[in-house]
């Protein structure tokens, strides 16, 4: 079984897994990092959204071999120690979560957006396609605007 | 030409080049203007304009509302009120109502399944098109949910001592019906098949 090493939330990890195993299985089942959620299994609902070298990815559709030597960040690694990421803080302030299942992915998508586009327009926010069954969309928008205004 | 005047006393006056013969056109126009300007209906005054040479002094009952069949109808504002008796967690209640509004909007506008020769065409969320922030259907909800808890308690009717009722799916049928009715009002066409964007 090939082994793959990468940086996960600032820590170097090595796993043994088939090269084409989705990163999501590696994170959740082998490394017990369960922030990225398993929703649709095809990269459509985006509940698993995380970052690879700072860019948004859906770990369900990224093979672990593609991550070798790179930096994977999940919701668990977004905060700076005890200091929440501005997006996380805005999420708390706006009380965004309902059932919460989609929220790690929503936050990671918003953080990736703000990194590239610190002052997003409505149209920029429209491009986030993460699905929320509870329909928290208007508070998501509110929180992104708040995080953008604060940074 | 229409002139919309805001007087120093903060009244909105529009002289309407139409004839009011009981069809309610002044009320309909006043409501639309109040809605667009976030003004109080009582502050909008619609006197009838003097007769004009271009001869457009019709009753206007049918044309005072926008008559069109939009390609991609969207909901730009939702106002909700709910009586759940006691709101145990007002922010949670607001959130749930917003969710039900999103569901109602989705159901009417675009969330549907196609059956191709007996099989469902849509395979997952990506083609089922529930309401999301994307997809050209932006919504800005102004429900009891927006604003501070203070303004919420003013806008939701919750007598403080009654036993709480479950808000669960409360808003879905109301929101769906409201969106379908709004579409009928905006276009002059009563929709009978849903979703509208299919
Ligand atoms: S908070 Fe429940 S699915 Fe988004």
Automatic annotation (TrEMBL), chain A:
Amino-acid biosynthesis listed as a keyword: no
Pfam family, one: Fer2
Domain 2Fe-2S ferredoxin-type per the UniProt entry, residue ranges: 6-58
UniProt cross-references to InterPro entries, sorted A to Z: 2Fe-2S-bd, 2Fe-2S-bd_dom_sf, 2Fe-2S_ferredoxin-like_sf, 2Fe-2S_ferredoxin-type, Beta-grasp_dom_sf, Diverse_Oxidoreductases
UniProt entry keywords in alphabetical sequence: 2Fe-2S, Iron, Iron-sulfur, Metal-binding
Domain ([2Fe-2S]-binding) ranges: 74-144
GO molecular function: 2 iron, 2 sulfur cluster binding; metal ion binding; oxidoreductase activity
UniProt KW 4Fe-4S keyword: no
Identification of the protein by name: (2Fe-2S)-binding protein
Source species: Streptomyces caeruleatus
The organism's taxonomic lineage, starting at the top: Bacteria, Bacillati, Actinomycetota, Actinomycetes, Kitasatosporales
From TrEMBL, chain B:
Composition-biased stretches (Polar residues): 54-63
One of the record's GO molecular function terms: oxidoreductase activity
Biased composition (Low complexity): 142-161
Domain of life, source organism: Bacteria
Compositional bias annotation for Basic and acidic residues: 64-74
Gene3D superfamilies: Aldehyde oxidase/xanthine dehydrogenase, molybdopterin binding domain
InterPro entries: AldOxase/xan_DH_MoCoBD2, AldOxase/xan_DH_Mopterin-bd_sf, N-heterocyclic_Hydroxylase
Region (Disordered): 52-74, 128-161
Domain Aldehyde oxidase/xanthine dehydrogenase second molybdopterin binding as annotated: residue spans: 4-64
Name of one Pfam family that matches: MoCoBD_2
UniProt-listed PANTHER family: ALDEHYDE DEHYDROGENASE
Record protein name field: Aldehyde oxidase/xanthine dehydrogenase second molybdopterin binding domain-containing protein
